[in-house]
Write a structure and sequence with these properties.
Length: 127
C-alpha cells in the first residue's frame, strides 16, 4: 500500500524581491547549504519508520486465518443458563429442564470459584 500526496510547488518570482537587499557579490562557499545532523537524523527516522511499516505489512500479509472449528452438535439443549449471585457471571448450568419448578441451585460457581447461589435464568432450546 502506497500513500502519496501531491501538491504543486510554487517558486518565488524575482519581481517580488527587492534587489537592493540582495548581495550578489558574495559567493556561498557551501553550495548545498547547511545540512545539520538533525536533518540527517530526521531522514533516518523517516527511513526507519518506512521500513517498519513495510515489515508490518509483510507480517500481516503472511498471517493465515485459522480454520473454524466450532462444534455445531453439542449437548447443551435443555440446560439452564444460570447467573451467580456473587459475581453476576453467566454460564451454562448442569441443571436440565424438567417438570420440577427449580429457580436456583447452590454450588461452586465456575467463574468466581466460590460456593454461591446460582439463579436459573433461561433455558437453551434447539431450533
Amino acid at each position: 500500500m502506497r500513500i502519496s500526496k501531491r501538491r504543486p510547488i510554487m517558486a518565488a518570482d524575482e519581481d517580488r524581491f527587492d534587489r537592493d537587499f540582495m548581495d550578489f557579490d558574495e559567493v556561498d562557499e557551501d553550495p548545498v547549504g547547511d545540512v545539520s545532523p538533525e536533518d540527517d537524523s530526521l531522514d533516518d527516522q523517516i527511513d526507519d519508520l518506512s521500513e517498519t511499516v513495510e515489515d508490518l505489512q509483510d507480517t500481516l500479509d503472511e498471517v493465515e486465518e485459522d480454520d473454524v472449528s466450532i462444534e455445531i452438535d453439542n449437548n447443551i439443549a435443555g440446560h439452564f443458563i444460570a447467573e451467580c449471585e456473587r459475581c453476576k457471571g453467566i454460564f451454562i448450568s448442569a441443571v436440565v429442564e424438567s417438570d420440577q419448578d427449580v429457580t436456583s441451585v447452590n454450588g461452586t460457581c465456575p467463574i468466581c470459584g466460590k460456593d454461591t447461589e446460582q439463579v436459573l435464568k433461561w433455558i437453551i432450546k434447539e431450533k
